[in-house]
Amino acid sequence: MWPFMFMLLYAGLTTIPHELYEAARIDGASWGQSFKHITLPMLKPTIITALLLRLIDALRIFSEVYTMTEGGPGSATLLFSLYTHRQAFTYYKVGLASAMAILLLVLSVTIALTLVRKNMKIEEFEKGADA
């Protein structure tokens, strides 16, 4: 997943017009100022999208950990999804596991909607600045 994140951010970097950096250099901006005032604001929607995709990937991880360690040794690699699986299929607490899965769903949807709304506010602000 990390190579995809780097590719996504690189694609975002290539969409930034070089004229902005040239104008900043003519105005006497340093590299840090150009990064802070040009690169980061232009990359915010891409960064938010990358964070959202990474969040989805992190919350769905199960098979790799289950296959390699089954949550062990002890509970060193016990993830929420693996713990939910263990509650349902090892201890037969299906009701608890269902509640945990719904909690994970609500948490992930809340975080995703927050990121999407933040991305929409950034895009609305950029549209307003262009007009």
Task: List the keywords.
2 domains; mainly alpha; about 130 residues; single chain
Distance between the termini: 37 Å
Element string (H = helix, E = strand): HHHHHH
User: What is the mean pLDDT?
Assistant: 90
Structural Rg: 21 Å
DSSP summary: helix tally: 6
- What class do helices, strands and sheet pairing give? mainly alpha
- Structurally, the number of domains stands at 2
Q: Which ranges are low-confidence, i.e. pLDDT below 50, for 5 or more consecutive residues? A: none
Q: How much strand content do the residues show?
A: under 5%
How can the largest sheet be summarized? none
| Overall morphology | elongated
Helix and strand layout, with pairings?
Elements: H1 2-14, H2 18-26, H3 31-60, H4 63-68, H5 80-89, H6 94-130
Helix pairs in contact: 1-3, 3-6, 5-6
Word description of this protein:
- By secondary structure, the chain is mainly α.
- It has two domains: 1-60, no CATH class; 61-131, no CATH class.
- It is built from six helices and no strands.
